[in-house]
Amino acid sequence: MPRYPRVEDDDYDWPQYVSVGERRRKAEREAARLGEASPVVLKGSRIANTFWGKAWCENLERYSDYANRLPRGRTYVRSGCVVDLKIRSGTVKALVSGSRVYDVEVKVSPIPNLRWKAVCQDCAGAIDSLVELLEGRFSKPTMERLCQEKTGMFPLPTEMKFSCSCPDSARMCKHIAAVLYGIGARLDEKPQLLFTLRNVDQQDLITKAGSRLTKPKTARLLETDSLSELFGIDIAEPKRRRKPRPATRKGS
Ligand SMILES: [Zn+2]
Description:
The chain is α+β, with helices and mostly antiparallel strands and 252 residues long. 36% of the residues lie in helices and 11% in strands.
């Protein structure tokens, strides 16, 4: 039998002798072996179809840091290689089937308090129920507010850290890229997991009588001092002390 490059050799997406069908069957066997696994299974050719799933994927694609690696992730996730994916608060753990099964972890920072409060204030009155929220049934301006780069609900590259057990030394290997798209597919089915992942309460976005979100629905002007905490990144001097957080959260 001739020698073929291993799948881990990063110049090759798939060795020629392994068809997509074979790879998919292998991934299915792996998923069955894992028992309680939550494989990423796409319903059609698209990775995501709903507001939340699409918004997650579009957020990834807006960052040039990721541009080279993401197309391979699309190929991988479409072929059923993400054989397990679980989203918890601050962490996504996944298993990706290549020539071996690799462990992938994506850590995502919580949304900083000030940023979340600003999102909720700007969206106050726009979403009436949990069903509307999860089904993405709200106005275009509300969608745009939730998706705003840096000030919306979706993570910046500085808010995500990745690891994979494969030998590819690149910061984002194709297994990680597949998992990032797998998260988008999972949010299609269970959008509430975005709130779990980012450690915020989805109820804060829903309009209630006597809601604590009583401020006017206008974009807030942010003071420079609060930018660091809002974005969760150090903007100026790295050693500058952060302002102490308020003693209470979420109006409790
Ligand atoms: Zn990898």
